[in-house]
Amino acid sequence: MATLRLGDTAPNFTAQSSIGELNLHEYLGDSWGILFSHPADFTPVCTTELGTTAKYKPEFDKRNVKMIALSVDGVDSHKEWIKDINETQQTEVNFPIIADEDRKVSDLYDMIHPKADNNLTVRSVFIIAPDKTIKLILTYPASTGRNFKELLRVIDSLQLTEYHKVATPANWEQGEDVVVSPAIATEDAKKIFTKGVKEIKPYLRMTPQPNL
Fold this sequence. Notes:
Distance between the termini: 42 Å
CATH architecture of the largest domain: 3-Layer(aba) Sandwich
Strand content: 15-25%
Number of helices: 7
Order of helices and strands: EEHEHHEHEHEEHEEHEE
Shape: elongated
Strand order of the largest sheet: 5-4-3-6-7
Number of strands: 11
Largest sheet: 5 strands, mixed
CATH superfamily of the largest domain: Glutaredoxin
CATH class of the largest domain: Alpha Beta
Structural class: alpha+beta
Helix content: 25-40%
Radius of gyration: 19 Å
């Protein structure tokens, strides 16, 4: 099994899910996607994560992002668990949960780490661009819940830097200044970024976020 790297095409698959059969590439279409695994149904941290995902769906929708969850449990288990998520998290699960009982998808995406657990998926996150390339990979242990505000922040950065010649500095948030790409000479940068370019060092130039 080859290790997936940033820039690789996200492997396609067809699997059963809580909303019926799902083909990854067809389901994503022209959208961005977040494919994220959780260790098992009816587990406490995962229950809070999927409830949080449901609550954040309007924010992901604004960014043209589709969420897809996965665990090695089956469709019937997912549907029963969704009732618990809706009840305990005061929400409605509004995205598909893939059933991966045969571990086909888990193996395809290297979501099972034997030294962590031989049978359960770790908390993997794959952000997939509309061209189906993998833009970000995160792996959390089963004991640590994910920060969905951070996933939104990362999406904002990825979408900004995909279409503009900039990078985002540490702790960047939507609306803050960004870094001019090192590949652009300062004089050229001043023509491209009409809001202004501040040169701190020859290799560190800042400009207001260009898409606002």
